[in-house]
Write a structure and sequence with these properties.
globular, Ribonucleotide Reductase, subunit A, binds fe (ii) ion, 70% helix, mainly alpha
Length: 280
């Protein structure tokens, strides 16, 4: 990533601006069970970012001052995303106990210990593994960004639309950083390209997998990406990722979507799960 791009990012970084978001009026508009469940997932995952950072910093990524400069701002911005969604849910009458975050962390650490351990070890000993982390980050940020976009397209709640619209602007910058890092590290480096392709193919799962129970991840994936429009969106994300050196024709996101649909019992268009809308 060119120096001026990083500088521009660092200068632009700030706490999510909630000016004009009228939390007092949130409860005036209905929020469906599906919306609450998806937003709760999003809040939990945003709040988990600092733990993800801990894992990342135990790898060689910590030695790169550009990467750590970015991560310092990034974790701060994600923190405020979690807080903003939490405040929105609270305003809608859904208040979670403060112990929730600690419980989720204990659950996530227990469940992902092996995979995280392997990734951290690989990140320590293999120089090119930073490329895996950067590509992984790009995958997570683009799916978060598009996930919020899908949510906006399907909700009737005007304040939620405004709030998510502001969060998306941050996610777009996050994606740009990881994506540019991934490209710079894979360009002209066949070894890195092969490693990224193999590692993602073996380990990549949608954001938040293992942090929350599998059925919660599957539910959100199906709600946001399960219908035909969601499929088109999934393909769009993959096409963007496929432009990275060595990642041509990747189908990881479609594979993850199909697996989630299958586990949720959605096998045909006549399925009972109303995945297209947030009406139920
Ligand atoms: Fe975020
Ligand atoms: Fe982000």
């Amino acid at each position: 990533m060119r120096r001026f791009e990083l500088d521009r990012y660092l200068r632009a970084s700030k706490r999510l601006d909630l000016t004009g978001i009228d939390f007092d009026r949130v409860s005036e508009h209905p929020l469906s069970e599906a919306e609450i469940r998806c937003l709760t997932y999003m809040m939990d995952i945003e709040r988990h970012t600092v733990i993800y950072l801990r894992d990342l910093l135990s790898t060689r990524a910590a030695k790169d001052p550009d990467v750590t400069a970015f991560l310092s701002m990034w974790v701060y911005e994600e923190f405020w995303h979690g807080e903003a969604i939490g405040a929105f849910l609270r305003a809608a009458g859904i208040d979670y106990p403060t112990a929730r975050t600690a419980e989720i962390r204990a659950y996530a650490d227990a469940g992902k210990a092996l995979v995280n351990g392997l990734k951290m070890l690989a990140g320590k000993v293999i120089p090119e593994f930073v490329a895996v982390h950067m590509t992984w980050g790009a995958m997570n940020e683009i799916s978060t960004l598009y996930g919020y976009r899908q949510m906006i397209a399907r909700t009737q709640h005007p304040i939620l639309i405004e709030l998510l619209g502001r969060i998306i602007k941050d996610e777009r910058r996050h994606f740009a950083f990881y994506y540019n890092q991934a490209r710079a590290r894979m360009e002209g480096n066949r070894r890195a390209q092969r490693l990224v392709r193999r590692a993602l193919g073996s380990f990549w799962t949608p954001v938040g997998t293992g942090v929350r129970p599998q059925e919660e991840t599957d539910y959100v994936v199906c709600r946001l990406f399960g219908d035909d429009d969601g499929l088109a969106t999934t393909v769009e994300m993959e096409q963007e990722m496929s432009k990275l050196p060595g990642l041509g024709g990747m189908r990881l996101m479609r594979r993850a979507r199909n697996r989630a649909l299958k586990r949720m019992g959605v096998t045909s268009r006549r399925s009972r799960l109303p995945i297209a809308a947030f009406s139920a």
